[in-house]
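notes to self, project folder thing:

trying the whole complex as one job this time. last attempt i did each chain seperately and stitching them together was a nightmare. two parts in total, labels are on each line so i dont mix them up again. if this works i'll redo the older ones the same way
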Amino acid sequence: MPIDYKNKRFLVVDDQPLARESLRAIAQTAGAFSVDFAPGYQDAIFKIRNNCPDVILCDYILGDGRSGQQLLEELRRFNMLPDETIFMMVTGEQSYEQVVAAVELVPDDYIIKPFSPDKLMLRLEKVAAKKEFFAGFYREKRKQEYEKALAILAAKKETEAGRAYRFETLRQEAEVHLAAGNAEQAEAAYRGILEKYEFPWARAGVAKSLHHQNRLTEARAEIEKVVSSAAQYFDAADIKANICMAQGEHEEAQKTLDAVAKKTPRNYLRKRLLAEAAELNGDTETARAAMADVVANDTMPGAVSTEDQLTLARTHVGAGDLIAAEKVLVLMRESEVMNLELAQQASFSALLAVASPDKGKKKFAGLRPALVASPLPTVSRVDVLRAALVVDDRELADGQARELMSGEDAKKVFGTVRKLYALQGRENDFREIQRQVAMQRIHHEEPPAGTA
Amino acid sequence: MHRLLDVLASGVHDTKNQLFYAESQIAEAEAKHGIDLSEARYAIETAAVRLTRTLTAYHLLRNDATLAVVPVVVADLCDEVVLDQRRHLAHAGITLTHTCSVQDEWPLDRDLITDVLNNAVQNAGRYARARVRLSAWNDDGGLHFRVEDDGPGYADPEGGRSTGLIVAERVASLHERQGRCGGMHLANGGELGGAVFELRLP
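result (full assembly):
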């Protein structure tokens, strides 16, 4: 399937002038209509945002502690890469192959320097053919029409052309199941791939699927296999850390993330995860430093969210630095706060009530009926619990503690909740709540006799 | 030891960037002046491949080489080997043909297997009179590649081996799947009557 390069716009991303010039010459000789340059990470993001090219040729090493792989992950994270755009990694060394073999998020292809215009064309044509094969599927997947997307895959799988994309089809099937919340089907799909070959990303997929089913011990065993065998697979560390946190093993989670975060200092999603693990582990200083780094340096527009600001404030509260926490919260714009969902409003008002009772107590009290009546995510519940303990609203606090200890994240937040009670000298009350929850479990959710 | 290797790898990396610049300038000149300098580009690419192969051989001999296995469309891989070698062989009056009956993706180390096949085709081209053939097929035994020529054949198929063949043998045996390993086999005869190089991957 020959491509008409007369209309194709290329973007060359490379920090080395000589390498940029080489790529330009090769692309133009191959027939590219226009070739634009980006000397670094930020320029690349800017150019792709404003006017997405048809083909991106990106060097693996971008300087300034950034890699082409990171750029690719960031572009996908912010949905800035249309499915039609070809992202081709260019590398001078074989080591990138090790990355591609391990990670989940791979470029459309990679090519090793030096290469001829003919080779580039051959590769681009193969990629274009593959994109064409999956085009209908991609469209439905992007619209989150998962049933339709899966139906397209199932039909394509049986065709003659589909045989060449057998693994990719299985992989897409697994990912869609996971995205759609069908963890059991995702697990089956990943295991189907493993029957054919032990790909690290497929094994990691099994671990993730098991985590979603709350089968934590099995999930942990699976991800340990990946972490020990695929050193380049940093994402596996993230998956492992998430599982460890769910198991309540926060020290191991932090240790795992610490090691990898040092190698990827500008991966701010990982920094966020590190902050979460450190906070649960009681290492408030690391949590604070990591979140401060995220808020200051994750420069992609819109990357630093309300959630991040709340997390930063939370880490300050955890470290006992109430002034810093108040500063973060007060700096959040009024309009921003007004438009928050209940969960975030709950966190905001709870954190402010702790950081600055004068400013926060009233709003927190105003939200009370909603807090009692509504389901809240774990992180907000912990915030509400902390504030309720501080303002000595025992009923609200104990209610949140009961919800937390009977919920799915009980192991994850057990240590945190116990510590919050201890801070108020109420360890015994917490023990009583635990006992009640355990009794309720034994009695199959029926209220145990003799308790109110 | 690792430091030494880092120094070597970084030297190779820089050299390849320079070679890429040279190739790109030649390619541009070819387009601009309508001339064929593909042999010069072939020499440049071969030099780069040799550098990489040297590093690979070093790792293989030290037994610390790890494969990077990805699903590969076998027909695409064959197309690429043909693209790399056909023109150069044609300059020497040798015709390279290929057949591939593998329709499925196959898990293998794309870069290493491509290099092994390129090397085998280059070797065949050195001794062939007029023809070299690359073929790929699969059966219950796994995936097979064969490179054959119409030259005099191996002096001793069981005898001493060049670096390229040692690399090929080790790369094949590193490919492991469900307890089975790959292998390399050399013979004489075949359909073209000369040397036959075979690679089998599980």
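what i see at first glance: Confidence is low (pLDDT under 50) at residues 448-452 of chain A.
need to look closer tmrw
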